[in-house]
Design brief:
Helix content is 63%, strand content 0%. Helix 7 packs across helix 8 and helix 9 crosses helix 11. By secondary structure, it is an all-alpha fold. It starts with 8 loop residues before the first helix and ends in a 17-residue tail after the last helix. The protein has one domain. It is built from 11 helices and no strands.
């Protein structure tokens, strides 16, 4: 388990290495394959489109499916993104990637697309530049800022800066961490605690009954 204040790279490495198992532990249909697409397939696809990298509507739709499956499902967002015009998505993402490392400008190029808010925009940018832009997950925001209800650009910039600084702090020991590594480590810790809590509620020693469910912040 790692908390945001921790500065031991070993603890963070351990939390980060547990990410794949935590993805599996959620037991959500297609999440393992969606996560593989987002982390391993999409980044090289984006980078091979030189000299102006971009994302396609189908890729953005699959990214949205990953985001909603890993977090909270919102079908309307998926429908909005899936119906976006291909040329608009291509142009907006080209401009966004060209704006980096200016995260504020990059996010602002993507959010005019229907269904794409700062959180989804952050997922697009994190796929292209994980060393600059972390994904704005509820779990990581709660850990870093103590709040996961504000999805504004201002909040994302505060969040991104904290994760960039933490990545730099952890990397000073020799091992390299990106802001996206920090996000995944925080997410893994939060999900690990959530899964552990669910298992303990169902433990026969506790009568085999689940306790009152805690509402998840969105």
């Amino acid at each position: 388990m790692v908390e945001f204040a921790h500065s031991d790279p070993g603890l963070w490495s351990e939390a980060l290495s547990s990410y794949p198992s935590q993805i599996e532990a959620l037991g959500k249909p297609n999440l393992v394959s969606l996560d593989d697409f987002y982390r391993n397939e999409l980044p090289p696809l984006l980078h091979k489109r030189n000299p102006s990298p971009y994302i396609t509507t189908s890729e953005l739709s699959k990214l949205m499916q990953w985001k909603l499956t890993r977090g909270k499902w919102r079908p309307r967002l998926f429908d909005f993104v899936s119906s976006l015009d291909e040329s608009l998505v291509k142009l907006a993402s080209q401009k966004a990637f060209q704006c980096l490392p200016d995260i504020s400008k990059a996010v602002s190029e993507l959010t005019p697309l229907k269904g794409v808010g700062p959180a989804t925009a952050s997922a697009v940018l994190a796929a292209y530049a994980p060393d600059v832009a972390p994904f704005m997950s509820d779990e990581a925001m709660e850990a870093a800022l103590g709040n996961s209800k504000d999805y504004s650009l201002k909040q994302y910039l505060t969040f991104a800066k904290k994760l960039q600084d933490k990545a730099k702090e952890l990397s000073s020991e020799g091992q390299i961490f990106t802001p996206s590594d920090v996000e995944r480590a925080l997410w893994s810790t939060a999900i690990g605690e959530k899964v552990k809590g669910s298992q303990s509620q169902l433990d026969p020693k506790n009568g085999g009954k689940a306790g009152a469910k805690r509402k998840r912040k969105t």
